[in-house]
């Protein structure tokens, strides 16, 4: 056999082996792709075997947030109700923005988008829209106090000044409306990063600015905080939106649709809607309960008894109690906080106290003081006792995680994390702005920060008043 013949046989053998290996690799690769595709095909039967539903949503005042470290929100309550109806444990994931919602769904990171996605033909090719369909629009927010003249038609905005945050969809819509009307609307751009859309609504309510623009859903929620605003004038076309699941989950979509039209779930839907968009959440104007002959309330002996055990001024406890319940032991807030000290039922259970027991004045006060003591321990690095009280009050109101977030933001932006005024309190307020609550240093998302900021100030103001009127 010649060397040339041997060489040809070797080449043939090498090519044959290469072809076999390539074929094997191709089969393995296709098998991997098939497995990957199969892993995305998780429908309701597979979820029931797993016992868990993963939903993705956004942090916001209308979808999902933590209040006193309890998960809450309109979309959250609805998806939790659906998961419960299917006997599934709910796992929540949070996307940074609306475009990430569908991306996470299509990547198999979530089973359902529990947030109203705009219904578009492009997205319809990729997902199944399901559940209750919402029709949303943008509205003009204006004050409706006695004597105010309401704008009832968009043409009446000509010559008026409307305040919106620069670079937002509200600014874009107002600019387009101005073009449609041939000009004449004075658009005041708010470029300060500390001002949010909800801040602008509050400024309208307080008469600091005349008009702003908001989504109707956000406007409805904020009307429960400010009953003197009018949100009836629509300034944009209606936008359809709803939840969505993957094209690989038709049975899950069917179950969500069935739940959305079921009579039992309809009752829960109405209750949830009422909780967020109808029940008043108006904070009290800083009020001072009358102090007669050194007595703040009928519960002073209990305040003194339990405050002394943890080295607290009983008058501070009284101020917290008045802020939470106006000394009404049967008080229940819109969020579900109960009793004289405004304790969330889940928090109480963690301390071995049943929800109904919170209405007992002594148990309620004792539990509230124990909560305060534990929060205070969470700020051991703050040596100034007056400062520590401010941080603890903020934690009592919002949950300690939000205060830790604000401290981390303070560090990031060169502020003192152990000082409240002009430092951490600024970032508590900024936690209602997506730019800040979506920051990687934040672990607990959206907070209606102005509410916590005001809570600390109001409790301390009343505390000083009680100290002047009573003896320690």
UniProtKB/TrEMBL annotation:
Record keywords: Cell outer membrane, Membrane, Signal
GO biological processes: peptidoglycan metabolic process
Gene3D superfamilies assigned to the protein according to its UniProt record, in alphabetical order: 1.10.530.10, Periplasmic binding protein-like II (3.40.190.10)
Xref: PROSITE patterns: PROKAR_LIPOPROTEIN, TRANSGLYCOSYLASE
Localization per record: Cell outer membrane
Bilayer disposition of the protein: Peripheral membrane protein
Record-level GO cellular component terms: cell outer membrane
A UniProt-annotated Pfam family: SBP_bac_3
All residue ranges annotated as the Solute-binding protein family 3/N-terminal domain in the record: 57-280
CDD domains associated with the record: MLTF-like, PBP2_YfhD_N
Entry's Gene Ontology molecular function annotations: peptidoglycan lytic transglycosylase activity
Family in the record: Belongs to the transglycosylase Slt family.
PANTHER family, A to Z: MEMBRANE-BOUND LYTIC MUREIN TRANSGLYCOSYLASE F
Protein's name in the database: Membrane-bound lytic murein transglycosylase F
Source species: Macellibacteroides fermentans
Taxonomic lineage of the native organism: Bacteria, Pseudomonadati, Bacteroidota, Bacteroidia, Bacteroidales
């Amino acid at each position: 056999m010649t060397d040339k013949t041997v060489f040809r046989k070797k080449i043939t053998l090498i090519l044959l082996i290469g072809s076999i290996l390539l074929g094997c690799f191709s089969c393995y690769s296709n098998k991997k792709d098939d497995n990957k595709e199969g892993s995305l095909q998780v429908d309701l039967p597979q979820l029931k075997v797993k016992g868990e539903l993963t939903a993705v949503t956004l942090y916001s005042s209308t979808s999902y947030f933590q209040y006193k470290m309890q998960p809450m929100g309109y979309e959250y309550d609805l998806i939790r109700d659906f998961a419960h109806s299917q006997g599934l444990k709910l796992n929540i994931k949070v996307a940074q923005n609306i475009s990430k919602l569908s991306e996470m769904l299509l990547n198999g990171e979530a089973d359902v988008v529990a947030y109203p996605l705009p219904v578009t033909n492009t997205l319809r090719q990729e997902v199944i829209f399901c559940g209750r369909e919402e029709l949303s629009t943008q509205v003009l927010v204006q004050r409706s106090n006695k004597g105010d003249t309401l704008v009832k038609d968009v043409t009446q905005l000509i010559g008026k000044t409307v305040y919106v945050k620069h670079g937002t969809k509200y600014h874009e819509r107002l600019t387009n409306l101005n073009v449609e009307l041939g000009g004449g609307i004075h658009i005041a751009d708010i470029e300060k990063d500390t001002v949010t859309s909800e801040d602008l609504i509050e400024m309208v309510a307080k008469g600091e600015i005349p008009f702003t623009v908001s989504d109707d859903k956000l406007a409805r929620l904020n009307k429960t905080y400010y009953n003197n605003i009018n949100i009836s004038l629509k300034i944009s076309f209606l936008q359809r939106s709803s939840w969505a699941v993957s094209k690989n989950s038709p049975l899950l979509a069917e179950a969500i649709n069935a739940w959305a039209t079921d009579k039992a779930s309809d009752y829960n839907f109405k209750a949830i809607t009422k909780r967020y968009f109808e029940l008043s959440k108006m904070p009290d104007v800083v009020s001072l309960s009358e102090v007669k002959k050194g007595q703040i309330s009928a519960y002073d002996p209990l305040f003194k008894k339990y405050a002394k055990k943890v080295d607290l001024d009983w008058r501070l406890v009284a101020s917290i109690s008045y802020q939470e319940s106006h000394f009404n032991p049967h008080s229940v807030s819109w969020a579900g906080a109960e009793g004289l000290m405004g304790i969330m039922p889940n928090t109480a259970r963690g301390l071995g106290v049943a929800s109904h027991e919170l209405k007992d004045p002594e148990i309620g006060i004792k539990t509230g003081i124990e909560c305060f003591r534990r929060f205070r321990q969470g700020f051991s690095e703050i040596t100034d006792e007056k400062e520590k009280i401010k941080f603890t009050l903020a934690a009592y109101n919002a949950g300690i995680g939000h205060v830790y977030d604000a401290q981390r933001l303070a560090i990031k932006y060169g502020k003192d994390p152990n000082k409240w005024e002009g430092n951490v309190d600024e970032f508590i307020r900024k936690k209602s702005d997506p730019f800040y609550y979506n920051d990687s240093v934040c672990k607990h998302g959206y907070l209606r920060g102005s509410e916590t900021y005001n809570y600390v100030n109001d409790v301390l103001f009343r505390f000083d008043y009680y100290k002047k009127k009573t003896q320690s």
